[in-house]
Amino acid sequence: MNRTSRTGALTILIVTALYSSGAMPSDAAVEGTLKRPSSFNQQAKSSSEILLFLEPGTTVASIAARYGLTFKQTLKSDPNAHIFVAGTAVKALSARQLAAKDAAVRQVYQNSRTHKVRHSFVPNDPYFHKETPSGWGGRGQWHLKNEYTDIDVNVSVPWSLDITGQGITIGIVDDGIETTHPDLSPNYVASNSWDFGQNDAVPDPVYTADRHGVSVAGVAAARGGNGIGVVGAAPYAGLAGLRIDFDFQTVAMFVDATLYQSSGGSNAIAVKNHSYGVTESYVPAAAERAALDTSAAVGTIHLFSAGNDRGTGYDDSNKKEPQNSPNGIAVAALGFDGVFAAYSCFGANIVVTAPTSDALAIDAVTTTDRTGSEGYNTPIDDSFPNDDYTSEFGGTSSAAPLMAGIMALAKQAQPLLNVRFAKHILALTCRMIDPLDATASSDGGWRANTAGYRFNQNYGFGLVDTARLVGAARTYTGITALKTEDVVTTVVGAAIPDDNTTGVSRTFNLASNTPLEEMLITVDISHTYDNDIEIHLTSPDGFKSRIAKQNYGSSGTSGFSWTFCSHAFWGCNPQGTWTLNVSDRAPADTGTWNSFSVTARMGTLISPPPSPPTISMPLPGNALLLLGQPD
Known about the structure:
30 strands, five-stranded mixed β-sheet, alpha/beta, disordered N terminus, Rossmann fold
């Protein structure tokens, strides 16, 4: 049996690779200007540690003796997952290869130093209502309730129905939350919290740079109705701090935080937020993706910031992992002006958009900050009069936790909600914004597929509408079991014409007729400059969508084998002949399309309303909220 396909109780072997230089990102790098190593993937191979998921009953001592390893640590989330030290990278590689054939070892991973950064901007705005605090001015928490325009998440109606996130815990995978902050402590859940960097039960900030998670937590679930500060999207949801040491990060930390209290039959943490990611393209994260799959299987909903890299050579979010996973929800950013933020990544993997700061930190998000003089609110960076809050938070780092709070509201309304269910009702209820968008990154602007779903790669299905989303969550009773159809690896072996938009095409057939969810396309390409490559997929009914965009202005790598995720075909009938096209859009560099494989994921909502979808939700005063994909 293929070892990677085996199911059941897991015991993971992860090989941890440390940067050969030992250097980690500076505070400036963590906050946005990343000082990348010259070759992250190459340095990752220098690991001297391994992480193993073992068969239950297998002892640490027996594995250590068998492969000449030294035990280091057991993952908090799984008693059968252990980190071992091999002494040298060569010994680690040898142990990894041998362990992969060992019947007592279920999974083997390299536990390398990762290079993610907090997707953070330094923005600007006051308390909930505009012109507060007195004499300060500002637009208030406009992302929740905009008192100037209609660009907000429409959260007031669910609040008025006492849907506040009560009973739902949100895990903040970040650099810590301040557990004694007056606007966070009432919602803090100590029993579900852990510091995966310090390996203790106190998830508070440790270093001066640890301020990001405090603000993220406030956006998601700052306590509301207590007469102070700000309110989060889910003001009565629980907050679990899942702290990562970003200055000493490893794969194991992120795997552990992803699985903790949301795996092995437990989903005590129903929603998790991940406001971080790599800034490069095509950096594999196999262990994290596997952990995400495991956690999603028990019903935990994971939100990921799409990335703040627009304008660089790494701005297609579909080239980032695990942002491209079907078991997560990638969130893009919208500014106060109703247009995608100038830093927000795009891609066929984007699901939804939420309001946050623009590129100039104007009309940003007001949220919790580290108390006192530490944090974003400094005399130089922020003149907000209360040092326990900042008016200058934003980026996709703020868009994602806003969605995490909204997911907690929907989860309260519908306890059966999981990531697939959530995507279905987001596709139905999101609001089209920036309707005239025709930018190159949009892939043709807003286009409706043959199932009637509108999609734009800058926005996914659109701006979240919380009232409609919660109404749909209350109306539908679930989703059908996931159905998949695979196209096995197909050898292409064709040279890609250089600087030629025609490219190379291959076809494949699908037999199923169950409506689509995601299309997963794995492409293997050898090329001297991967940013030249653009990939398109055309359905049997002629609907064409880009799954990877050509990038400019960066140094591409030497090819890739990558799984792309597309939501553009949501709801379509997959049956028939599909066409996959690969083209090289720039001169000089050349390459070969080696192979591809396909997985079509399919399913539908249970108990849908008549078509077109119209759902009624009772509101105060005998009003009705009509749900569907609004104009």
